[in-house]
Amino acid sequence: MSGLTRFQISSTSSKRSAEEFPALPKQLSEVVKFNSSGTFFVHAKVADLQFSLYKACPLKSSGGVPCKRKLDDEMFCHTCAHRANSPLQCLFLRLGLQDCEDPEINQKVTVFSSVAEDYLAMKVHQFASMVEKCSEKLEVVLQSKLGQTLSVKLNLKAKGGGEFTTMDWIAVAIHEDKQNEVDNEDGEIIELDTGKKRAKKN
Predict the structure, then answer these.
(1) What is the tens place of the pLDDT at every residue in 124-153?
(2) Model's pTM, two decimal places?
(3) Bridge partner residues of 26 (DSSP)
């Protein structure tokens, strides 16, 4: 697969500041192993990135927040039982995160429009315009994200029940990591550029 389609999700398949992230986010492997609902800060590499643009329900709740559920082909929202005349355009990303120490540990993470806009530094309408008119330029932008090290604030939500329980991994904030160190579950500091480890100072 080549070109912009490399990054597209098949149809068959709030802004945060850097100061909100702890100095040393946890490794992805620790959160994968923990496998529990909650909010986590992780440090990981971007191994894969896919996107999907979709039409969403504009109907607002009593609190003034749009539904943003995906509409069907007839512009109908099955959650609100509403047919949209002026649908919203939304962006959905799937990031494949990879553990910085163990490349065998990978996790798919969902990124919705507002966080995706911050991460890509462009609005949804700008992204959609590039898909239509400047696909080669957009491909370069997305390609530049691969291999980046990120600090990601994740919200893990359990769905299902019993033996069928799975986790939804939702990114609620993303920060391009410019630091050179992370900690691991053994209480060591890892230098990202060299891979060297050292004990934490008490």
Answers:
(1) 999 999 999 999 999 999 999 999 999 999
(2) 0.76
(3) 42
